[in-house]
Amino acid sequence: MRHPIMIGALFGGLLFAGAASAQNAMSPEMKQVLVQTCRQDIATHCSGVQPGNGAVKGCVRDNFRSFSQPCQSALRQVMAQRNQQ
After folding, report:
1. How many CB atoms lie within 10 A of CB 27?
2. No. of helices (H) and no. of strands (E), the chain
C-alpha cells in the first residue's frame, strides 16, 4: 500500500524542510495530528504521486484548498510553527 509511504514522505519533508537542525523538527504530537487529520486527504488527492523530489509535498500544496478543513488547519499550524523557529 503506497499511502503510508506517501504520508511518511510528506511528514519527513515537513520535518526537515529548510534547515536540517533539530530545532526545526515537528513535535511528535503535531506529527500525530497531521497523520490523523490528513491521511484521507492525501490518499484521495495524491494517490498517484510517486514519493521523492518533493512530489508529495507539491501535491499537497497544489491540492491544499481541496483538503478538509481540519487538515488545512493542521498544515497551517505546522507551517506557522516552522516559521517561528
Report:
1. 10
2. 4, 0
- 68: DSSP letter: -
Nearest-angstrom CA–CA distance, 32 and 26? 10
Per-residue confidence in pLDDT tens, the chain, 85 aa: 445 555 655 655 554 444 344 445 677 888 888 889 999 999 999 988 888 888 888 999 999 999 999 999 999 988 888 777 6
Residues 6+ positions from 14 with CB-CB distance below 8 Å? 26, 34, 57, 78, 82
Distance CA 5, CA 11 (A): 10
Give me the pLDDT at residue 66, please.
96
> Amino acid letter at 18?
G
CB 74, CB 38: distance < 8 Å: yes
